[in-house]
Every structure is written in structure tokens, then in C-alpha cells.
Amino acid sequence: MLERLFQYLGLLAASFVSLLKVIVRSNLMLKTPSVQERECVILGNGPSLKKLLADRLEDLRGKDLICVNKFPDTEVFTQLKPRHFIFVSPEYWVDDPANPNTAIRQNIINALIEKSTWEITLFCPYKGKKAKDWLNNIRRNKNINIVFFNDTPIEGLSSWNRFFMGKGWGLPRPHNVLIPAISMAINSGYKEIYLAGADHSWLPMISVNDKNQALVNQQHFYDENATKSDLMYKLGMRPRRLHEILEKFMFTFRSYFDLKDYAESRGVKIYNCTPDSYIDAFERKAIP
Question: Which of left, alpha, beta for 157 (phi over 0: left; psi -120 to 50: alpha)?
């Protein structure tokens, strides 16, 4: 009984901290545009997506698609013409020449601008609104509609989390881009959400070398050559230690259960269509 009390008080404290984060960091007036369609497919960049694209490319053409991260810089982007594109990393708009990821992110944005000949919604964290030159560059393409969202991380009591997410004031810790993608899909009004390319099979890919550096082999569907283990950086500042990598993964997998709870409260079904996915929160089902 006492243990349950302490657990509740811990969750309550986390909820109050989340409330303070929302007050300080979130724009409480942001709204997510609604859609009329019932279903959408979120395309993660995991290696399993390669087979899905080879087997069911034509089937995917007629669906509402949400793509993430490097997808615009692939040839299949113009073939499928996704309705939405989302990212969460500040490296997309922060100009930091010392960060090797800056040039990669800029190539993705350039591809989005150059290739989008159809109407597409770009979901961008609200913090990116301060990057005026970057935004003006994107707005050169009138087909791109920029929608800002609050990526403020929230934790604590489920009832509080559902309230914050319902208002669009925050979301579970966005350690992976699929977390805001699912959140935006729910708040947009989709009733059935299908996840593809959501492998998340990093655990067997972790190693530690003789220099005590923790390495992860992160594979993607667009990799042309065999990938290799590499350092995982903490916001581009320094390599993550092993416990920090595992902590990041823990928050990611836990966030999916928070999203499942929120989806059920809104009458939304989330299906994981990724073969051998490590995500254990959602029901497994093939894309219809």
C-alpha cells in the first residue's frame, strides 16, 4: 500500500513538472489541422520498409502517407507523394557547421523543397519558428504547408498526459520521430494508424569497443551499402554512453504505451505492420 502511494506521488510530481514545462515551453494556441480520411500509414525508415516498397508500392500510392526524416531525399518520395512530412530534431533548422548532421539535414530539406510538386504538410517543432531564413527558404515552394507543433516532453499521470496531448501542448518524450508522427496522426483525426518500417531493432546492434565507446548499428531502408556501428551523439555535443543509449531506448518504447493509452481514449486504433518489430505496444496487423 505504501509503495503504491509513493508511486502515485512520484507520478503526480512528474505531472506538475510537465505542467511547468508546458507553461514555459509550449505555445498553447497551436492547432493541428484536421483530415477527412479515416486511415493513414506512417512510413518509418527502418530496413523492413525496403521489402514493403518492393511488394506493395502501388497499394501505398492510394493511401494517406506520413513520412519522416530522410524520406524526401529518396527516389520513392516522388513516386508515393506523401501527404505529410515530419521531423523533430533541431538539427534541421539549427545552423551548426561543426555538426556533421547539419549538412545531411539540409540536404533533406532541399530535397523536400525541390521535389514537392503536390500539396504536402510539413510538421515542424514550434522552436523552429525562430529560424526565419530557414522557414523563408521552405516557403519558396507554395505546395508546402508548414504546421508547427509542441514537442514538449510530458510524463506522469495518464489522465494528465491525455489532457496535455489532447490540447496539443506536449507529447511523450520524442526520442524517436515516430512518436510525434503518431501524436500528430491522432490529433489530425485519423481513426486507424498503420506503422510500417518501424523496426526499432537496435538492441542486438549495440556494442562497446576497446576504447569503451558505445556503438550502435542503425540500419535504414535507403542504405545502399552495408552499414557499420557508429557513435550515437547527444544533440551533436558528445557521444552517448551505454547507459544513455539504453535510457534513450527505454523512453522511446515507454512512449509508445503512453500513445496507445491516448489513442484508446480517442477511439483510435494503432497497428504495427512491421515484421519482427521490437515495438511491443501495438497490435500486429498487415496494411489492408
Answer: beta
